[in-house]
Amino acid sequence: MTKVAIITGAAQGIGEAAAKRLHQDGFKVAILDFNLEGAEKVAQAVDGIAVKVDVSDREDVYRAVGEVVDQLGSIDVMVNNAGVAPGGPLMAMREDDVNKSFAVNAGGVLWGIQAAADQFIKQGKGGKIINASSQAGIVGNQGIGLYGATKFAVRGLTQTAAQELAEHKIAVNAYAPGSAVTPMLKASAHEIAQEAGQDDQWALDQFAQGVTMGRLAEPEDIAKVIAFLASDDANYITGQTIVVDGGTIF
Ligand code: NAI
């Protein structure tokens, strides 16, 4: 039977690449995003479905997952990929930055874990949950400290959910990308370039410094790891965060 994967934040960037890769691997893919128009375009490209969601709203996440189940019958994989990236030094962060970034990046992952796990438990066959952390969630990085804190939180949620859900045969893992060239990274590069009076390419080159492989990631580099974690080849892996950063030296 065709397996079903939900990917949040899949209207662009890493989520879009993951949708394309999982489609190639034989999954039926549900594209969940705040941006319905973008989600519909990707859904068309992968013969999948698009559902609008705000991952920071628990009820909305349950509704969206329910819609996927109504349309596709069941789910096998949940990729909690949607995220936002507040930039700037910690001293510049205010309540809005904290509330929004934690609500989307950590809250969104928790609601995704809950909605998927409830459905997996109902189905009784287990399942796989895959969460977006970041290299910034492995070590502190000046300039993106608040974002990093939300991504440290994702690793904590991943480890604990893996322990709490193992009895239901649910595996929970995370991926931690280095800098991948997506609309999110390009927007950060643009901001940094503006501040430094440089062009965007200069800022992208700064991101690539310290990467052993000497280049930024393409979204497809991250999608391959998501596909591995979604596959049967990863059946004995849980509670882990896989770093995909081209060997970054800190
Ligand atoms: P992106 O900004 O290009 O795409 C994110 C998608 O999430 C967008 O389609 C957006 O509409 C959606 N989204 C945002 N808030 C949402 C919400 N509340 N509800 C539903 N959808 C929402 O981001 P990118 O670069 O593709 O990143 C994907 C994930 O990977 C994020 O969690 C990000 O933090 C993480 N990541 C990305 C890195 C990079 O260098 N691009 C590095 C490390 C982690």
Automatic annotation (TrEMBL):
Q: Which residues form the active site?
A: 147 (proton acceptor)
GO biological process: one example: acetoin catabolic process
Which EC class is this protein assigned?
A: oxidoreductase
Q: Which UniProt keywords apply?
A: NAD, Oxidoreductase
- MF GO annotations: diacetyl reductase ((S)-acetoin forming) (NAD+) activity; quinone binding
- The record lists NAD(+) as bound by 12-14, 33, 54-55, 81, 147, 151, 177-182
Record's PROSITE patterns? ADH_SHORT
Gene3D superfamilies, alphabetized:
NAD(P)-binding Rossmann-like Domain (3.40.50.720)
Pfam families xref list? adh_short_C2 (PF13561)
- Write the Enzyme Commission number(s) for this entry: 1.1.1.304
Q: What reaction does this catalyse?
A: (S)-acetoin + NAD(+) = diacetyl + NADH + H(+)
Under the heading PANTHER family, the entry gives: 3-OXOACYL-(ACYL-CARRIER-PROTEIN) REDUCTASE, SHORT-CHAIN DEHYDROGENASES/REDUCTASES FAMILY MEMBER
Task: Give the protein's function.
Answer: Catalyzes the irreversible reduction of 2,3-butanediol to (S)-acetoin in the presence of NADH.
**Family indicated by similarity:** Belongs to the short-chain dehydrogenases/reductases (SDR) family.
Q: Which NCBIfam families match?
A: 23BDH, PRK07231.1
This protein is called what? diacetyl reductase [(S)-acetoin forming]
State the organism named in the record: Aerococcus kribbianus
Source species taxonomy: Bacteria, Bacillati, Bacillota, Bacilli, Lactobacillales
